[in-house]
Amino acid sequence: MSEISIVQMESLIREQLPFAVESGFILESLADGRAVVRAPYRSSFLRPGGTIAGPVMMGLADYAIYAALLSRIGLVELAVTTSFNINFLSRPGEADLIADAGIIKLGKRLAVGEVEIVSADRNNLVAHVTATYSIPPDSA
Amino acid sequence: MSEISIVQMESLIREQLPFAVESGFILESLADGRAVVRAPYRSSFLRPGGTIAGPVMMGLADYAIYAALLSRIGLVELAVTTSFNINFLSRPGEADLIADAGIIKLGKRLAVGEVEIVSADRNNLVAHVTATYSIPPDSA
Amino acid sequence: MSEISIVQMESLIREQLPFAVESGFILESLADGRAVVRAPYRSSFLRPGGTIAGPVMMGLADYAIYAALLSRIGLVELAVTTSFNINFLSRPGEADLIADAGIIKLGKRLAVGEVEIVSADRNNLVAHVTATYSIPPDSA
Amino acid sequence: MSEISIVQMESLIREQLPFAVESGFILESLADGRAVVRAPYRSSFLRPGGTIAGPVMMGLADYAIYAALLSRIGLVELAVTTSFNINFLSRPGEADLIADAGIIKLGKRLAVGEVEIVSADRNNLVAHVTATYSIPPDSA
After folding, report:
1. CB proximity D134 to B under 8 Å
2. pTM of the model
3. Which of A21, C13, C60, C77 has the most CB atoms in a 10 Å sphere around its CB?
């Protein structure tokens, strides 16, 4: 179950996360407190040396946690990221990135999410994220 | 003093950080272990509600620390971000963002940097970042 | 499989982590890249208001990841914590804390671990940790 | 100016942070949004290899930020740490540790603090911390 549909989420994203739209991110699944977002491979994501640019992974993870959060609390537009911590673990291949996000705490005022990003060709863990979100008081 | 010039750094960035180029970031100063990078205001940076998109600030901070680091170790192309922690502190205005980065540890294998991002119109602190970089063994 | 035994680990801890010994932490299991450490309940762990003191949870998580790491790389005494990030998620009960740690990246020079801490009476997630360790060059 | 005195803070600490008392931490100064806390050297703080145990530094930093926060908001007993990020930068000497904390954001519901920990003999940066605190609604 999700408090919002994939279509509603994508509509919100077009308004609120233009970076996600420009980057071609696709919301693949959305269930109660979990979301999977895919970043189809673009050569422009890669740096020389083969690393995917950090901001792309950050934008992808941010989208995935935000979707996972809204699947629990519904269309609360003003939930904002308050902190974001990412560990880069290995170089991705020339392949799609897949972000799998879950909400590990949902309080009245604060939510915490966790994301694993894998490279689709090798299925290895490319990055791990934890992030916190502030939920506006009147949305509880 | 810096081990690299602003021109060298900008040339490296065109190759390695296309995100920074597309976003219009400008390296304003580069001294031993410190760098200042400006993000000239674009309405596309803003989300409804007035928040600057997280990935923009992350990309800006990443550029600033990377420049600060190379000002100390020279043109080491393979220094990679291993972790990145950002706290979002207040909403920026419709104004340029300025990232002021410093290296707080430079070890043989690991460097740690810190960035403050301020909104140019109000001079208030918008975000605070700490990030770690891995330095390849043969560059010491 | 583990590169070291629980008895070897406990002996190392007595030398290296006196905090863990004084706090009564018990290493319950140690397998390839995973470790479970229990903190038997003490009233002295609690603050008024019912929160477990942060340093206790940090010490517990640090022990668990360190054990998980050594189960992979063996008795490398000089692996040191380089960064540590903890999110406090909910108040624990008056009960044992259990830390379940895994290594999510093992590179030649850097390892990253993740820990979930639960309160034994409720089985709810009390804290989530990611931490990075530097591995000395000659131990590879 | 501080909303509370050093004597009031120390009294609160005796109740709420027994770890700080047992560790011998001393609150040296407390001004509007800043606090300095000293950890007089104890050989029991050291690990073999010369590293100060992580939990000691975490406990010290937590105390310093908490004091800095209360110097701004007064005796709000239920402000709790929600996240804590520490980077270990260099080994301290056999000397006192000094934590210098400041509040970099004070919102209605969330505060963010930053701490630098130095080793008193060398005056070098040993660790850097950022941490967030949740402020209960009725204390604003």
Report:
1. no
2. 0.91
3. C60
Distance CA C59, CA C82 (A): 14
With a cut of 70, which residues of chain B have pLDDT below it?
A: 46-52, 77, 138-140
Residues in A closer than 8 angstroms to C125, CB to CB, are 104-105
The domain spans of chain A are 6-139
Place of tokens 């890669």: A46
d(CA C129, CA D84): 10
Angle at C53 between CA C49 and CA C54, to 5 degrees: 125
Q: A130 vs C90: CB contact, 8 Å cut-off?
A: no
Burial (0-12, 13-18, 19+ Cβ within 10 Å), A43: exposed
- Cβ of C8 under 8 Å from any chain B Cβ? no
User: Quick one: which of D22, D82, D27, D28 has its CA closest to D55?
Assistant: D22
Rounded to whole angstroms, the Cα distance separating B15 from B29 reads 20
Q: Are C128 and A114 in contact (CB under 8 A)?
A: yes
Q: A84: distance to nearest CA of chain B, Å?
A: 5
Q: Which of D86, D105, D132 to mutate to test the interface with B (most CBs of B within 10 A)?
A: D105
Which chain A residues touch C85 with a CB distance below 8 Å? 85, 130
Express each pLDDT in A85-106 by its tens digit.
Answer: 999 998 888 889 999 999 999 9
Q: Does domain B6-139 have CATH number 3.10.129.10?
A: yes
ipTM confidence: 0.91
Q: Which chains pack against B, by 3+ Cβ pairs within 8 A?
A: A, C, D
**D105/B contact by beta carbon, under 8 A:** yes
Q: Give Cα B69 distance to the centre of its chain.
A: 10
Exposure string over B44-65, b if 16+ CB within 10 A, otherwise e: ebbbeeebbbbbbbbbbbbbbb
Asked if B115 contacts B128 with a C-beta cutoff of 8 angstroms, the reply is yes
Angle of CA points D20, D25, D30, to nearest 5°? 105
| Chain A residue closest in CA terms to B66 | A54
Counting Cβ atoms within 10 Å, is residue C45 exposed (0-12), middle (13-18) or buried (19+)? buried
| Alpha carbon of residue C50 to chain centroid | 22
Chain D hits for C83, CB-CB cut-off 8 Å, are 85-88
